[in-house]
């Protein structure tokens, strides 16, 4: 089993929490190595799930990964808004949690081993590259159908002063599964002697 990563978009009052579990593997295509992601689990928790229950559910998902992969997965969790208390809850449960703070722009910066600053533009570009290249492999589930709808609803808006915003803006739409998946596949695990693609 390859490296397994969990991406979590922590919900707020009007958005549910979403969890994506993805396994990384290298595949050779046209003589070069490419990173591919097998999505093992997609889940959207019920709206209004209390944060201690969110932490419990994440610990359960990580425990299943730990048993199957015989290693502790890295959890990339949105800590931009209300996510930091859940990050703290997860760390208290012994999981390796990297707090991700969304920023403006198209950069990904690691500040410490447990903090990443991630531009939404970078996240969207990475997802587009992987999806268009057929490098994300999704299960045939109800949550995958929801993800497909979220991708259709996802927009990039540019204001008059050239500021960009990313997300699902129409009333009743969500982008939580897209964000969770983007967090799970944001980084190519390092492998010696193989070029990152």
Structure description:
Mean pLDDT is 83; it is low at 192-197. The longest helix is centred in the N-terminal third of the chain and has 19 residues, at 51-69. The chain contains five helices and ten strands, in the order βββαβαβββαβαββα. The radius of gyration is 16 Å and the shape is globular. The protein has one domain (4-184): Nucleotidyltransferase, domain 5 (2-Layer Sandwich), CATH 3.30.420.240. Helices cover 32% and strands 32% of the residues.
Spans where pLDDT lies below 50 across 5 or more residues: 192-197
Shape estimate:
globular
Can you summarize the main beta sheet? 8 strands, mixed
**Level-2 CATH architecture:** 2-Layer Sandwich
**C-alpha termini separation:** 20 Å
What is the residue-averaged pLDDT? 83
Q: Provide the succession of SSEs.
A: EEEHEHEEEHEHEEH
Tell me the fraction of residues in β-strands, as a range. 25-35%
Decide which structural class fits the backbone.
Answer: alpha/beta
Whole-number tally of structural domains:
1
How many DSSP E strands? Answer: 10
Q: How are the secondary structure elements laid out?
A:
Blueprint: E1 4-9, E2 18-29, E3 32-44, H1 51-69, E4 74-78, H2 83-92, E5 96-103, E6 108-112, E7 115-119, H3 120-132, E8 136-137, H4 142-153, E9 155-158, E10 164-167, H5 176-184
Parallel strand pairs: 1-4, 3-8, 4-5, 5-7
Antiparallel strand pairs: 1-2, 2-3, 6-7, 9-10
Task: List the keywords.
32% helix; two-stranded antiparallel ribbon; 197 residues; disordered C terminus; 8-stranded mixed beta sheet; Nucleotidyltransferase, domain 5; single chain; 32% strand; alpha/beta
